[in-house]
Amino acid sequence: AICLRLSSTTWLNGYLPVDMTGDWIFQLFDVVSLMILLWLLFQAFVKLQHTYQALEDTMPISFLLFPCFVSAVVLHADMNARPVFDALWMAGLFVSVVAVLPQLWLIAQSQNRCEALTSHYIAALALSRVLSGTFMWHARHDITCDPWVEGFNHAVWSILGAHALHLLLLADFTYYYVKAVLKRGIAGFQLCMDDCPV
Questions:
Q1: Please, what is the average pLDDT of the chain?
Q2: Spatial contact of 23 and 30, defined as CB atoms under 8 Å apart
Q3: Helix ranges, 43-153 (H)
Q4: What is the rounded CA–CA span in Å between residue 75 and residue 157?
Q5: pLDDT at 65
Q6: Which stretches of the chain score pLDDT less than 70?
Q7: How far apart are alpha carbons 184 and 37 in whole angstroms?
């Protein structure tokens, strides 16, 4: 998702704020995030391969990627006025929505238990979707597209719908996370997504 977003935001301005933050801050955070992701993948698959939960990590994600790309080609905005890069940005948004599914699947395969750091990461992801969705809601009047139906901006509703779907996917997890934090505090707990004793 980050690479798809960077393919548009590193050299085009359509999906960036028009103030100074759009000049380098957004791209910097995405590049740093990409470097951290690559480092984490190296750690998980090379250095700490023995900790990888291969037996539980069985969700096939590839079948979800094709609909993300097809939907992006059909529903993209035209903020960059370059259809390929507009579609890549939209695909990045759609891929980021389905990217959480393997983690939720892994939690389900682990008897609905989740370590504290993983729980905090998913909670931060939910918060980021709320903030991003709020930003997109306020920017909805600035997002343009070549409408399929006259007077209906399908790109705005696709973007907002993707955010809503992401939050819906995280809703159950967020409920149990907030419940666990209120009961045990934020440090050193193992999240249990049903009423099992911890």
A1: 86
A2: no
A3: 62-75, 83-98, 101-109, 116-139
A4: 9
A5: 93
A6: 187-190, 193-198
A7: 30
Phi, psi values for residue 151, rounded to 5°? 85, 0
Show the tokens assigned to 117. Answer: 């750091």
Q: Which run of H or E residues covers position 39? A: helix 21-42
Residue 198: the pLDDT is: 46
How many CB atoms within 10 Å of residue 1? Answer: 18
Q: Which two tokens stand for residue 113?
A: 């238990």
Q: Are strands 191-192 and 113-114 parallel, antiparallel or unpaired?
A: antiparallel
- Give dist(CA 166, CA 162) in Å, integer: 6
Cα angle at 133 between 186 and 83, to 5 degrees? 135
- The tens digit of pLDDT for each residue in 110-149 reads 777 777 788 888 889 999 999 999 999 998 999 888 888 8
Task: Say how far residue 17 (Cα) sits from the centre of its chain.
Answer: 19
Token pair for residue 144? 């343009």
Closest of 164, 174, 40, 186 to residue 104, by C-alpha:
174
**Chain-centre distance for alpha carbon 123:** 12
Amino acid, res. 95: V
